Amino acid sequence: MAGMLKDKVVLVTGAGGGIGREMALLCAREGAKVVVNDLGGAVDGEGGGSQAPAQKVCDEIKAAGGIAIPDYGSVADPAAAEAMIKQAVENFGRIDGVINNAGILRDRIFHRMSHLDWKQVIDVHLHGAFNTSRAAANYFKEQKSGAFVHFTSTSGLVGNFGQANYAAAKMGIVGLSRSIALDMKAFNVRSNCVSPFAWTRMIGTIPADTPQQVARLERSKRMTPAKIAPMAVYLLSDAADGVTSQIFGVRMNEILLFSANRPVRSVHMSDGWTPQSIAETAIPAMRPHFISLDRSPEYFTWDPI
């Protein structure tokens, strides 16, 4: 049914291309007024200042009969994040949803990762999600409604090579989302995460040094960004009432629900533990339940259809 976001106002960050663009377009088709944010920078966060990506998406939305305005700020800047929300309220009278999609990659194997590589990725992903969410929180509180959709990744949920910065940021976003869900439940505010499987310009930067890696990336090209947008739109809609603090994956036509971190096994020693008894008793009892060191591409072995 069309119109699931009728009369709602939504901010989509990183919406100048890829998944963000598809979400902005679908939000508009479903009746939302959209603030299309994009810094106009490179995948690694360098550059910026190009207004073309955000403006182009706004032009597409308007050509299809929708309503949108561009924003060119950096989510890593708290003042710019506040300005995004303020622009929505000043132009459209309210803010109903925030999609925290903006991101960059600065992949390095851990022993070669610089502090700058670490900081810039954390700033955009984790600090950026906080900045925009915090800017919207008081509006949501006052109107007793609102929804956040944050983007996480299996690079954090499962693991991957060379992405300690990205994985840490994406796992931090999971904790942020749950905290928001807990703190703002009383105000009818929802907060959920989406872990997307889709071919984007960021995925296109991943090295492919073996025939197996090349084949995997070629398969990834089938997973178009448009497949991700419906879940994000649903989570912003009133139909998602009561759905909060969840982690969803979208992989082509498959939707996954991820578990949260909870104990899977416990052992008890009435006299207390020693290093020796841990080695002899506790660890052997727990070992069958250990998480394996699989990477995301090794865990998700089935082809998307």
From TrEMBL:
InterPro entries per the UniProt record, alphabetical: KR_dom, NAD(P)-bd_dom_sf, Peroxisomal_Beta-Oxidation, Sc_DH/Rdtase_CS, SDR_fam
Residues in Ketoreductase domain copies: 8-205
Family assignment from sequence similarity: Belongs to the short-chain dehydrogenases/reductases (SDR) family.
Protein name: SDR family oxidoreductase
Protein origin, superkingdom: Bacteria
Pfam family, one: adh_short
